[in-house]
Amino acid sequence: MFGDMMNMMGKLKETQKKVEETKKRLDTVLVDESSNDGKLKITLTANRTIKSIEMADELLEDKEQLEDYLILTLNKAIEKATKVNEAELAAVAKEGMPNIPGMDLFK
Q1: Which pLDDT band holds residue 39 (cuts at 50, 70, 90)?
Q2: From the record, what ranges are coiled-coil (predicted)?
Q3: Which of 2, 39, 98, 104 is the most buried (most CB within 10 A)?
Q4: What is the rounded distance in angstroms from the CA atom of residue 32 to the CA atom of residue 45?
Q5: pTM for the whole structure
């Protein structure tokens, strides 16, 4: 029984290390999102750090319109990046979790 606990602890530490490595790797995974008409393009990492914002010059002429574009497009980009982030981290966590009866959280 003690050996099983040591094995589980080792597996958990290994999984924790893989999760940290995955988080670092997600800093290099880029997610692009554009407004429906292509006037605004946002790129962020899967860890939800904004890397670039490109916009048509005409958006600079109307503050309210620019704000609306930014809100809508940023929210879509963050949602997309969050899905990538959660899927990647869940896959690593599921792969490394020991088989503990009743603890099937990632199925």
Answers
A1: very high
A2: 5-32
A3: 39
A4: 9
A5: 0.74
Amino acid at 5: M
pLDDT on residue 9: 74
**Could you tell me the two tokens for 71?**
């809100």
| Residue 79 near residue 21, CB atoms below 8 Å | no
User: Comparing 22 with 41, which gets the higher pLDDT?
Assistant: 41
Domains within the chain, CATH numbers bracketed: 22-96 (3.30.1310.10)
Which residue type occupies 38? G
Query: E strands of the chain, at which residues?
Result: 30-34, 40-45, 50-55
**Structure tokens given for 42:** 């946002």
- Angstrom CA distances, 82 to 32, 74, 75, 78, 88, stand at 13, 12, 10, 6, 10
Residues in the chain: 107
